[in-house]
Structures are given as C-alpha cells and as structure tokens.
Amino acid sequence: MNVLLLLNGLKGRALEELRSSLYNELRTSEGAKRQQQRFCGLVVAMSFNFFVAVGIILTNKLVMGRVGFNFPIFLTLIHYSIAWILLAFCKTMSLLPVSPPSKTTPFSSLFSLGVIMAFASGLANSSLKYNSVGFYQMAKIAVTPTIVFAEFILFRKTISFKKVLALAVVLAGVAVATVTDLEFNAFGACIAIAWIIPSAINKILWSNLQQDSLPNACRLMWKTTPITIFFLLALMPWLDPPGVLSFKWDINNSTAVLTSALLGFLLQWSGALALGATSATSHVVLGQFKTCVIVVGGYLLFNSDPGFVSLCGAVAALGGTSVYTSLNLKETNHQSSSKQLPT
C-alpha cells in the first residue's frame, strides 16, 4: 500500500514537472523560439509567409474594389481590432512569450511606434485603394532608399558608394515604373508618396525595439496595438469618405472583410517565422518573388496593365534592390569573419 502511494506520488510529481517545463518553454522568448524552430521548418515558414503576403494585398484590393468597401482607414482599424482580440486570446491562454526581465521598454518608444504604425498602415491601404497593384508594389520598393536617407539624417549613418549607385538605380526604376504606369493617378501618387516616409520610420523603430527591448514580434504588437487603434479612430473622419454606416454588411462582404483582417494578423506572424527560419538572402529572394507574383496577380485579377515601359522600370528597381542587398550581405559576412579572427 505504501509502495503504491509512493509510486503515485512520484508519478504526479513527474507530470507536474513536465507541465511546468512545457509552460516555461512556451512562455519564455528563447523557449518559444526553440519550439518555433522545432515545429516550423524552412519550407513551411517561407511558404506560409509567401501565401499570406500575396494574399493580403490581393484580398485588400478585392475588398476595396469589387466588394466596394471604400474605407481604407476603417479597414485598417478592423485589421488591428481583430489582431488585438486574437492577441488577447493568446495572452489569456499564456501563449505570448514573456520579455526578458532585464529589458524594459520606455512608453515613449512604444507610443511613437504605435502612432507611426497607424499612419503607415492606414496610408498603405489608402495607396492600394487609389493605385494599381503594380504601382503600390513599386512605392513599397522605394521604402528602402528612404530608410537609408532617414538613417543618414537621424543617426549620421553612411553607406558605400556602390550602395549609393544601387539605390540610385532603384529610385530610377521606381520613378519610371510609376510615372509611365498606364493607370497613373495623381491623387493616388500623392497618397503613395505620403505613405513612404511613415513606412520607413515604422521599420526603423520596429527593428530598433525588437533588437533592444522586445525580441518577440507578438509581444511588441500586444503593447502597440491599442495606441494604433486609437489613432486610426482619429484618422477616420479625415481620410475616409463618408457613408461607412450605410455599407451593406451581407454574408459575402463580411466574409471578405474578415478574411482580410485575419490575413493582416497572420502577416506579422508569418514574417517573424520566416525571418527566424531562414537567412537574410533567402528572405530577400522571397520578397522579390512576392513582388513579381503580386504584379502578375494584379494583371490577372484586376486587369491591371502597367505598360511595357513601366514593367522595364519595375525590373530595374528589382535589380537594384538585389544588388544593394547583396552588398549588404557581403559587408555583414566580412564583419562577422573579421570578428572571429584571433587577435
């Protein structure tokens, strides 16, 4: 009898220790990263990110085009609200990895990122509404030179002459691709230009916070999403046309909008998975492939015809981006190899 009680006690203790270890493995950022690498391989992560990234742009264009939901800021608000609900569910189920206890994030940094995200995401959907899919993608490529210029202005960070030439090719290709687009829209072009600057700042702030304070993307989203929702509510009366309450919320329209919102949440998650599962080179190649597929998808689904000259500009912009990324990677590899040399 005593032996049975002892065995039951040992079994219960072992189960409790196993449950505690699994809980800690999921709750800590390092444990979550190990679990992610164990269950989500390279092919799964990159395929997931590819389909979500292509799907959300085409779905958003469908929602604001054929569905007739002409309220890009309100659509962005729905995206972040659904993401907030899903993140709250994950937090309730203790699925969000905790931040390292030694790292604290100033509220001013989170507030700044939340405000910039509201402008960047809202103007991105506005640009997609008023421009063709190809024009939208070319404006997105122009974010990289803007980031380099912003880092030079803010942090006096300089780059090599070869990188400057590569970025000059990117800018020239983007200019040719956008100006010669047969569906060029002056108002849409202004929206796209206004979107590039907050998008670049958003990437800089997001990268700095992830490297310095919050390495987990979902944890960072959880802290900044309420701020973004508040400022999207403030932007709605200024940037959205009137008549949002008169929109017909039938089953088909509601399904399309909710699908777009779910893809918006999955985009952040899939991007973090892809960056964690692959090298920078593979991720950039994947980004170039996504651009090509999105442009072709816009041509097939929305009868978008940018014209031959615009396509040549797009190819030049993609080539310049590839060269710039290659130079970055060579410089990074050289620095890492020099650090490993014995002194």
From TrEMBL:
It is found in: Membrane. Keywords: Membrane, Transmembrane, Transmembrane helix. Residues 46-324 form the Sugar phosphate transporter domain. Its main location: membrane. The chain crosses the membrane at residues 39-59, 71-89, 110-128, 134-155, 164-180, 186-205, 217-236, 256-277, 284-302, 308-329. The keyword Transmembrane helix applies. Pfam families: TPT. InterPro entries: EmrE-like, Sugar_P_trans_dom, TPT_transporter. It is a multi-pass membrane protein. This is Sugar phosphate transporter domain-containing protein. It comes from Gossypium arboreum (Tree cotton).
